[in-house]
Amino acid sequence: MARTLIHVPPSVRRGEPFEVRTTIAHPMETGYRPDENGRVLPRDIVTRLQCTLDGALVFSADLYPAIAANPYVAFQVRAERSGELRITWEGDKGFSQTETVAVRVE
Amino acid sequence: MTVFDPQRRHALALGTGLAASLVVRPGTAATGDLAAAIATFTGGRTPEPGRVRLDISTLVENGNAVPVTLSVDDGIALPQLRSLALFNERNPQRDVARFRFGPASGRAWAATRIRLATSQKLVAVALLEDGSAFSHTVDVVVTLAACIE
Fold first, then answer.
1. Distance between CA atoms of residues B81 and B50, nearest Å
2. For an interface test with B, which of A18, A21, A30 has the most B Cβ atoms less than 10 Å from its Cβ?
3. Separation of alpha carbons A52 and A86, rounded Å
4. Which of A74, B29, B44, B70 is deepest in the core (most CB within 10 A)?
5. pTM of the entire predicted model
């Protein structure tokens, strides 16, 4: 399991957009770099990030090799009630990881 | 053998697709194909400048992780926006990222960190549901390139 960081404000206001910041530890090997023997290292990147709030799709990102290592993606979410944000990363070599974080609407 | 084998069918389809991508690859990897990559995204339409914003430092010291922010004008409501994408001119591949926003998304806004191989143009493109497209182009100077080697 890769290490992830998800930042959500401790509490948010109903209907007001708030920022969600995510990072996942991943080398994002581009598929263009040779190793010390001159062989090109195969591509190994996170290709997709998806975020749902109580099952409804909020945001998705398709990522390409130009995204820096340990991909950081931030976006905004608006919640009408407290719920659960579920963030899924998918990538090459069958990479898949899902993390959940609670959103508290006051 | 008259039994239909879905796995074999799948393998055949995969093989054909792979062959096609191998043939296409050299063309799309050439420089100066930025417009072509954008046209593929917009469905052939040339985007008009404006209504979308790309925030990036124009002088980049380290190309390995360059913060970028994409957003659209408040005049574009979320349901009107189909996708927001970022393209580059001189990395090995034109595509950088594509974002989509659902109804529960607060705003058409996204931030990430990208790699830049050299000084080049970056183009943010917003594609609307009615098929129209808007862009914002920024020229950036990179002093330390992202390591290709």
1. 14
2. A30
3. 5
4. B70
5. 0.84
Quote the CA–CA distance of B85 and B74 in Å, as a whole number: 17
Whether the CA torsion B35, B138, B122, B54 is positive or negative: it is: negative
Mean pLDDT value across residues A71-81: 96
Has domain B34-144 been given CATH number 1.20.1440.130?
no
Domains of chain B by residue range = 34-144
Quote the ipTM score: 0.94
Residue B11 has pLDDT above 70, yes or no: no
Considering only alpha carbons, which residue of chain A is nearest residue B111?
A: A74
Taking CB atoms and an 8 Å limit, are B99 and A60 in contact across chains? yes
B63-116 pLDDT per residue, tens = 999 999 999 999 899 999 999 999 999 999 999 999 999 988 989 999 999 999
Q: With an 8 Å Cβ cutoff, is B92 touching chain A?
A: yes
Q: Is A45 on the interface with B (CB under 8 A)?
A: no
3-class DSSP state for residue B126?
A: strand
In B63-102 the beta strands, taken as DSSP E runs, fall at 66-72, 81-88, 95-101
For strand B48-49 and strand B66-72, is the pairing parallel, antiparallel, or unpaired? unpaired
Look up tokens 């954008």; give the residue.
B38
Q: Which residue of A has its CA nearest to B94?
A: A66
* A59, A64, A77 ranked by CB distance to B97: nearest: A64
CA distance B119 to B140: 6
Residue B45 pLDDT = 93
Using CA atoms, how far apart are residues B105 and A18, in angstroms rounded to an integer?
9
Q: How many secondary structure helices (H) and strands (E) does chain A include?
A: 0, 7
